[in-house]
């Protein structure tokens, strides 16, 4: 699933292409929004809030989420799409550019004054203008669940996904099953903010500082392979807030005690 840095880059790219343009094409291909029409309205901006992408135009907010397979493409007007049209869920065009959301989910269109109904539940976003590390740490510390689960809960911190959780916990030497109140939440949050900010301008996300293929992570995706620090085989398992929300864990049993 795309994480906060990926959504931030998508929003930035869409904003650069669409900001200030007048909407000439507006097509939301979901039944409940099929009649919505913002043609003639100017696009104020496109921003990210955690893993949610928000497009503002005409006093309205269009929210989308990439989930596992979603993507926003940019085209010149009339250019052939690089994905099948049946996968398009949203099309927003101006005279200069056309944005097409393929397989995006959680589409919603509300007055911007009611935007909090869509994203108000989210915790502080380390890539947002109102980042509050103390509040993020407070929320994580108050969560009695395993730290991996607490870190993935977007109500605690917005933007971190499974890869970030695995890598940040390795870097802090914390086993993913450790109760969140037993972890130095402030240090974990500070490391997470520095890491995700460092990654927003990289072509490939990296936690090791090396951007070569296969060398970007310490533990994520490396089950049974030797730890890059100590050589112990990386262990794996599953954990989640509920059986339907379980994620694959990766950790080094020696480095994360």
Automatic annotation (TrEMBL):
Residues 2-90 form the Formamidopyrimidine-DNA glycosylase catalytic domain. InterPro entries: FPG_cat, FPG_N, H2TH_FPG, Nei2_N, Ribosomal_uS13-like_H2TH, Znf_DNA_glyclase/AP_lyase. It is an enzyme of class 4 (lyase). Its EC number is 4.2.99.18. SMART domains: Fapy_DNA_glyco, H2TH. Coiled coil: none annotated. It holds the Pfam family Fapy_DNA_glyco. Keywords: DNA damage, DNA repair, DNA-binding, Glycosidase, Hydrolase, Lyase, Metal-binding, Multifunctional enzyme, Zinc, Zinc-finger. Belongs to the FPG family. This is DNA-(apurinic or apyrimidinic site) lyase. It comes from Microbacterium resistens. The lineage of its organism: Bacteria, Bacillati, Actinomycetota, Actinomycetes, Micrococcales.
